[in-house]
């Protein structure tokens, strides 16, 4: 019988995911390992176990393989972010030392004064509640390294700073060649330059959350190049039905990719919409590359 701790975790997880979590073998051991790893990483912060598990459960995706979802959690990073949002002074010091100290390495060539200014803006953006809402750091789900997630927020802030002061730091001069590589859309060029690996990881995770039939349909069409007529013959279904299946699989893949990017990068709705434009524009190429792996 599941322990009270496990039942509490399940009570805070997305309802659609609970059956898969409940049937996952060794769920209690997985949760114990999450807590152990978090405590060992940051013994000085005094982790509140029950509140931490609730925090982790509430940030799980609504669908997917339970084993893969649990295995993707960065327990140490999630615990640090969680304790920071609780205002824990030791956690905030640790966050400064382990994460915000890297801002200068994310922006090589920038003046120390600009790096310090961005670091301060980043603290405010991530740690200060706005309008009664939790601080932005509370949206970090633990499904990507914390430094990677914060880096994405920092780079977004940096480009916003550049746009706010075009005479001092023209984007076209600071990012030479990007706009040319993606036509007339410098925002997409920036996204491709900065978030290529983030997108690849999110896209892989989204593919893993598709069911077997959806992946097979996309593989047959995009990797093996089967036409709709050939796939209709293979599946013994009408051509129009096969076309609908593929269209639905593509749209579900895009929706899941959006979920993964939201969890990994912490972007705003507008920023996500820009990134999804890039995802859509390169979907066929990405499917051929990743489904062939």
UniProtKB/TrEMBL annotation:
Q: Which GO terms describe its biological process?
A: DNA-templated transcription initiation
Q: Which InterPro entries does the record cross-reference, listed alphabetically?
A: RNA_pol_sigma70_MYXXA, RNA_pol_sigma70_r4_t2, RNA_pol_sigma_r3/r4-like, WH-like_DNA-bd_sf
State any single GO MF term. sigma factor activity
Q: Which domain of life is it from?
A: Bacteria
Domain RNA polymerase sigma factor 70 region 4 type span(s) in chain numbering: 201-253
Q: What is this protein called?
A: RNA polymerase subunit sigma-70
């Amino acid at each position: 019988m599941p322990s009270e701790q496990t039942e509490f975790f399940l009570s805070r997880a997305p309802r659609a995911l609970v059956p898969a979590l409940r049937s996952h073998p060794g769920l209690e051991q997985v949760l114990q390992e999450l807590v152990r790893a978090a405590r060992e990483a940051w013994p000085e912060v005094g982790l509140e176990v029950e509140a931490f598990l609730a925090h982790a459960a509430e940030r799980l995706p609504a669908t997917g393989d339970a084993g893969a979802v649990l295995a993707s959690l960065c327990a140490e990073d999630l615990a640090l972010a969680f304790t920071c949002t609780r205002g824990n002074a030791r956690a905030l010091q640790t966050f400064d030392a382990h994460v915000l100290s890297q801002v200068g390495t994310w922006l090589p060539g920038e003046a120390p004064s600009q790096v310090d200014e961005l670091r301060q803006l980043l603290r405010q953006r991530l740690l200060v509640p706005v309008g009664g809402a939790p601080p932005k750091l509370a949206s970090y789900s633990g499904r990507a390294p914390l430094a990677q997630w914060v880096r994405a927020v920092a780079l977004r802030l940096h480009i916003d700073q550049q746009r706010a002061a075009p005479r001092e730091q023209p984007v076209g001069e600071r990012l030479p060649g990007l706009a040319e590589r993606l036509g007339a859309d410098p925002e997409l060029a920036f996204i491709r330059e900065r978030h290529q690996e983030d997108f690849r990881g999110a896209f892989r995770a989204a593919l893993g959350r598709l069911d077997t039939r959806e992946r097979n349909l996309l593989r047959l069409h995009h990797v093996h190049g089967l036409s709709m007529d050939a796939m209709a013959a293979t599946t013994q279904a009408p051509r129009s039905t096969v076309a609908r299946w593929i269209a639905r699989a593509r749209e579900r893949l895009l929706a899941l990719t959006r979920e993964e990017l939201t969890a990994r990068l912490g972007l705003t709705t507008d920023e996500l919409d820009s990134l999804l434009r890039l995802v859509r524009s390169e979907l066929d190429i990405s499917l051929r590359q990743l489904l062939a792996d």
